[in-house]
Amino acid sequence: MYKFSLDKTSKKFICPRCGKKRFVRYIDNENKGYLEGNYGKCDRETSCKFHESPKQAYQSTIVPIQEIKREKSTIKYNEVIKSGKNYKSNNFIQFLRTYFSDEELKAVIKKYLIGTSSHWNGATVFWQVNQNQEIVTGKVMLYDLATAKRVKKPYNHINWMHKILKIPNFELEQCLFGLHLINEFPTRTVALVEAEKTAIIMSLFLPNYLWLATGSKANFKKELLAFIKKFNIIAFPDKSEYEDWNKKSKQLQLDGFTIKCSDYVESKNVPEGTDLADIYFESKKPKVVEIQYTKTEIEINRLAKINPQILNLIKTFELLDDNDNEIVNVG
């Protein structure tokens, strides 16, 4: 409905120009009444043609509707702390243990704030922390323990922490994975990949670069890269994504970015979807990992030989050791 409209009834008023009772006045539809003043139209169209619209006179009083800006949604840092444990049950971290030392893993876990989730047994949390150290969300993913490939059957195991935590009215505003590191390493060349997993692994292989991830191929876009515009950037797309990322890189160059797209993965004779980390793993042999049991596990399993029911109790009540880690059956 319009704010103002001509009266559609048969009621007429004296026209201010011709003096005839042929004047149709404008109605304020919001206040349900005639407008004050000579706002109306004479219906003697062939002789008088008087018409004064309220549109111009009233437009200065119309207050434009301002866009409602929602407060940016974030997650409390306490949730990050709570996820920073039980790495024995983290499939991704346990896979990396077959290639890297415990010291390297401790450093990379701290650097990227890698977490463990009980949403699925063995799941990993990749926290998205922006340039202001705000937790904008966390992506929860499940990987195969033996291959570190994503578990996609019987369904794709991927979720978001703000959904798992059931935070109401959460406005998801993603950022690059690892973005919080730009303040710590302001002079390093940024190496940009798609998967969070790949960024973490490549930071272990080539630590002289600042490895960040888009989280998806569609997130390789200006809006998310804006905060690293001042950096020298090398993008490493997955196999078959080079053409798209290279095209976008050229557009970003026109927008002032110092960025180039590497065809290193694309040039390899590898299956579609292969990423940089997959290629680097081909030349790295897994190391023999000796299982290390905690004092609690050794003692629990000693007692289990006397009374095997103790292991059932631990499993039933999901009991943890002093460091909040799962108690493993020594066997």
Name the helicity range.
25-40%
Number of helices: 11
CATH architecture tag of the largest domain: 3-Layer(aba) Sandwich
Average predicted local confidence, pLDDT: 86
How many structurally independent domains? 4
**What is the highest CATH level, the class of the largest domain?**
Alpha Beta
- Ends: how far apart? 77 Å
InterPro entries: DUF6371 (IPR045951), Zinc_ribbon_put (IPR047731)
Pfam families: DUF6371, Zn_ribbon_16
Q: What features would you describe in this structure?
A:
- The strands form 3 sheets. Strands 1, 2, 3, 4 and 5 form a 5-stranded antiparallel beta sheet that branches.
- The relative contact order is 0.08.
- The chain is of the alpha+beta class.
- The chain has 4 domains: 4-61, no CATH class; 69-175, no CATH class; 182-290, Dna Topoisomerase Vi A Subunit, Chain: A, domain 2 (3-Layer(aba) Sandwich), CATH 3.40.1360; 291-331, no CATH class.
- The chain starts with a strand and ends in a 14-residue tail after the last helix.
- The protein is 26% helix and 16% strand.
- It is elongated, with a radius of gyration of 32 Å.
- It has 11 helices and 13 strands.
- Helix 6 (196-205) packs across helix 9.
